[in-house]
Amino acid sequence: MIQTIPPLKVGVAGVGVMGRNHARVLSDIREFDLTTIFDMDPDTARGVAEVHGAEGVTTAQAFVEAGLDAAVVSTPNRTHADLSVALLERGVHVLVEKPIAATVADARRMIDAAKANNRVLMVGQVERFNPAVEAVKRAIADEQVISIQITRVGPFPPRMGEVGVVIDLAVHDIDIIRHLTGSEVAEVQPQLARTRAEREDTALLQFRMENGVIAHITTNWVTPYKVRTLQVATQGKFVVADLMTRQVTEYFGQQPDGSYQTRAVNSWPNEPLKKELESFAHAIRTGETPAVTGEDGLRNLEVALRCLGE
């Protein structure tokens, strides 16, 4: 007789743009049964819950007490820690959207709660699961990396949140740089500007990693169109990726006359968010370390706060 493992009861807290995406994708993954949606706005909670055949709740307490196995926390940053800790202490595995928390102390509190209760705490750094980023990592696996340059720019978001571009956008790229180099940030040289927002809307961030790699992030909300590009220079090649189209190109074999060869690198057309949530389920089922740990989230937050001088 074949034993079937029941799906994990999962809920989503905070159903803005990202939370709705989580709910949509979770509904499509057989390891999960989406049972609960939490949003403080009753119409939003009810509306999203109805779409997915789930229950809508409007308080954090009701969400924590909903009998979940796992939860995605995509509420505002400042609320991540209290809600995540309450869930972890209740025995619920947590995937928290980036950045892990608003402060380093809050992030540590979450990491401690996960350890104390033997639960998975994973951070939603979705670009880790972008097939283009994975293709670049494969392409540079045996190479000595010299430098990394990432551009993540675009127009002002329709609704301004509580953070500027460093926390909202650059945290993605800080994580990519740490992931590709396998090293931590040693030096930070940030240049920030505020033109049309209460917080910084333009940032040029330079880093030196502990292993000597230099990296540069250009990010803003003042470019009228979106650009998401990643360039990695190594001793033997130059790799360019478009994180939106997932196109990855290698330039190699440069000759004395300046000529070189190029080749396209395969990147599979997977939805990064689905891969992230499947990875979360895998960590829960197997007890393996999640792909993006609470400690990863803490390191990314620490670097971002250093860039902001906090």
Shape: globular
Proportion of residues in extended strands: 25-35%
**Number of separate strands:** 14
**Strand pairing plus helix content: what structural class?**
alpha/beta
* Helicity level: 25-40%
**Oligomeric state:** single chain
Radius of gyration, whole Å: 20 Å
Give the mean pLDDT.
Answer: 95
**How would you spell out the order of helices and strands?**
EHEHEHEHEHEHEHEEEEEEEHH
Low-confidence runs (pLDDT<50, min 5 residues)? none
Distance N terminus to C terminus?
A: 58 Å
Biggest sheet architecture: 8 strands, mixed
Give the SSE layout:
Layout: E1 8-13, H1 17-26, E2 32-38, H2 42-52, E3 55-57, H3 60-64, E4 70-73, H4 77-89, E5 93-97, H5 104-116, E6 121-124, H6 131-139, E7 145-153, H7 165-181, E8 185-193, E9 202-209, E10 214-220, E11 227-234, E12 237-242, E13 248-252, E14 261-265, H8 272-286, H9 294-307
Helix pairs in contact: 4-5, 5-9, 7-9
What would a concise description of this structure say?
By secondary structure, the chain is of the alpha/beta class.
